[in-house]
Amino acid sequence: MTTAVPAVRPANPNFSSGPCTKRPGWSLDALKGAALGRSHRSKAGKAKLKEAIDLTREVLEVPATHRIAIVPGSDTGAVEMAMWSMLGARGVEVLAWESFGAIWVTDAVKQLRLPNTKAVVAEFGKLPDLAAVDFENDVVFTFNGTTAGVRVPNHDWIPADRAGLTICDATSAAFAMELDYDKLDVVTFSWQKVMGGEAAHGILILGPRAVERLESFTPAWPLPKLFRMTKNGKLDEGLFEGETINTPSLLCVEDYIDALNWAKSVGGLKGLIARSNASAKSVYDFVARTPWLKVLAADDATRSNTGVCLVFADPALAAAPLERQAAFAKDFVALLEKQGVAFDFGAYRDAPPGLRIWCGATVEPSDVEALLPWLDWAYAQLSPALAKAA
């Protein structure tokens, strides 16, 4: 721990977990090719949407067997489209270990009120028992728990011969972690996360088993227009060629295309993963030598390489009421924001008080390295008050 002001500042102080920082070198000039003022149903508009879908397939290495659509409502819209359209054919298990997984539990249990639904919930920092999941049921889960910094370690727990569907919220995993599309029937994400795109648009990826469900099962409830993916009992193929359900922002689409082209320039999926891994490793190595911090994820194998969640390990703070811990975390973040060193890196409002440092691919690993001494400096400024309070 040092009281000296660090000599180096992050060149880019944006460490928000969503919307995430723009790709390195981004400027408004990146959007000059946008089809502004054109209908999204025009030849030019459709071409841009199809380009975004095709580049998504290329960068994410999505197999030709899977369809990709741009849908409304960000990742939330994409997940809820899948849940409202596909669930109800068999039992359901919803896994949750952080805030957004808990939302899908609420959707299944309190909104859809599905019979034979099981909520499998673990506390922040831990995964539920994945070995106990019954794949005779449809299974809904987040690949990477954005607000807990805890991810599933692999795909081995998902059987190839499962009877139910897997619906995977991968919004903080796509472009930063390997996804096995043979094991994931539905994959959703928002391009505002790892790609640093602009909000409000989601991506929905459907495997063959998901398509079969859509064409063979009709939910017992009415579906609003925004959720409809079939026409006359068959998949609406146009949706997966860029014929969006509602009007998309072609400015945001252009921005996403720019981010995907940048992704190709840094080595595609492998390059993106390597950037996230490098940034996350810097933080985890720092925590390993820093006694006043600890990683929220209880198991090293489940640590996220995007939203890295940390909590304070100072004994005086750990013994303090939760409100005091939250106030300290708020003061910590505010101090570095005032210095212009780091913005929006506090823990999510439902999570244990602490820090959440985004390490997705658009963050420069060198900026993460530059941030770390400032964490020590901020703690040195604020920790004397802990001793007095104790």
UniProtKB/TrEMBL annotation:
Cofactor field: pyridoxal 5'-phosphate
Annotated CDD domains: AAT_I (cd01494)
Catalytic activity: O-phospho-L-serine + 2-oxoglutarate = 3-phosphooxypyruvate + L-glutamate
Species in which this protein is naturally found: Methylopila capsulata
KW Transferase (keyword) present: yes
Lineage of producing organism: Bacteria, Pseudomonadati, Pseudomonadota, Alphaproteobacteria, Hyphomicrobiales
The UniProt record lists the keyword Transferase: yes
Superkingdom, taxonomy of origin: Bacteria
Family: Belongs to the class-V pyridoxal-phosphate-dependent aminotransferase family. SerC subfamily.
Enzyme Commission number: 2.6.1.52
SUPFAM superfamilies per the UniProt record, alphabetical: PLP-dependent transferases
InterPro entries: Pser_aminoTfrase, Pser_aminoTfrase_methanosarc, PyrdxlP-dep_Trfase, PyrdxlP-dep_Trfase_major, PyrdxlP-dep_Trfase_small
Protein name, entry field: phosphoserine transaminase
UniProt GO molecular function: alanine-glyoxylate transaminase activity; L-serine-pyruvate transaminase activity; O-phospho-L-serine:2-oxoglutarate aminotransferase activity
Gene Ontology BP terms: glycine biosynthetic process, by transamination of glyoxylate; L-serine biosynthetic process
UniProt keyword annotations, A-Z: Amino-acid biosynthesis, Aminotransferase, Cytoplasm, Pyridoxal phosphate, Serine biosynthesis, Transferase
Coiled coil: none
Pathway: Amino-acid biosynthesis; L-serine biosynthesis; L-serine from 3-phospho-D-glycerate: step 2/3
Gene3D superfamilies in UniProt: Aspartate Aminotransferase, domain 1, Type I PLP-dependent aspartate aminotransferase-like (Major domain)
